[in-house]
Design a protein that fits this description.
- The chain is an alpha+beta fold and about 375 residues long.
- It folds into 3 domains: about 90 residues, Sandwich (Immunoglobulin-like); about 110 residues, no CATH class; about 130 residues, Glutaredoxin (3-Layer(aba) Sandwich), CATH 3.40.30.
- The protein is about 40% helix and about 25% strand.
- It has 10 helices and 15 strands.
- The strands form 4 sheets. The protein has a 5-stranded mixed β-sheet, with helices on one face. Strands 4-1-7-8 form a 4-stranded mixed β-sheet, covered by helices on one side.
- Helix 8 links the parallel strand 12 and strand 13.
- Helix 3 runs antiparallel to helix 4 and helix 4 runs parallel beside helix 6.
- The longest helix is centred in the middle third of the chain and has 32 residues.
- The radius of gyration is 26 Å and the shape is globular.
- The N and C termini lie far apart (about 95 Å).
Amino acid sequence: MKKLGYLFLIMVLGACSSTPENSFTINGTVSNLDSGMVYLQNYTDGSMKTIDSSAITNGNFKLAGSVDLPELYYIQINNNRRRVPFFAENSNITVNLNTDSLDKTVITGSKSQAVFDEYQKGSSSYNEKMQPYVDQYYAARAIKDETKMQQAEASIDSINTLQTEYAKKFVINHPNSVVAPYILYRELSYTMDAGELDSITSLFDTTLNNSVYTKDLKKHIAVLKSVEVGQPAPDFSMATPDGDSLSLSSLKGEYKYLLIDFWASWCPPCRAENPNVVAIYNDYHKKGFDVLGVSFDKKKEPWLKAIENDHLAWHHVSDLSYWNNAAGKLYGIRSIPSNVLLDSNGIIIAKNLRGDELRNKISGLLD
């Protein structure tokens, strides 16, 4: 009887010291900071939400929460704008925050975080290889050496391609981890079409179907399929610089070919591409080529100033909603510059043509 009682006591104590299956605890330390506050946060519905908070006592803190599936959460120290991202899952998690360099924070106890750490280590190696060429590019730009700028850009693009391939392989090789749909949606979906995204998503274990990242992927794929080449362009209405409302459908009949150009005044690649679009517009507008600029700006003044400075003499609309631009969401735009080319019937005939590709396409259609 005494032996049974002893075993029962061990079981009770063990249960008290463990984390319930449907929740997680975070035991943390903060270097060089004895007091203050730490916040556990999650990005939901377009904003950061605080899940739990803890006072820092003698450099220690404790947080708790629960997740159905592993999900990216954030830890914030006091009101520091920088946050430490990590994959929370229902387990005992240890976080050692490094206030001197948050990038050196050590997180253990989350299997998903361990997978993410592995991915980030591999990906960062490409960033290290890329950095010397980035430095060369800016040095060449400072002295306006176009040749060296192009050479540096070519090297950057080459390494960036290798980095993207590494990410794709990592996703494919980890079909059972929630990190895979996270990487695919957050880092790769910007430049992939519906077919490729669908193909990779189909490899994921069915246990990931309820992950927020898998759900986001499937929604994004559905949107991309609705705006593939050959599909009718979805209509939308938005405010012009004058405050009037302009719809895509209202322009029908005014053009033979229309480029819907998604851009923003704050986007350097967009501004760099504008002169090319202006030149094509000037050469082919009288032959039936037109442009509708859809801006992802947040404020009206810089938007209008960019239109004037870049000599963008075509139609313009914006809801000044940044990445929540309604037309951008309708067309699945997750990076800019992006564009969609329509024929006179409003059918999508090409996407994301820039530079000589855009000129050659318009020339072939109208010359």
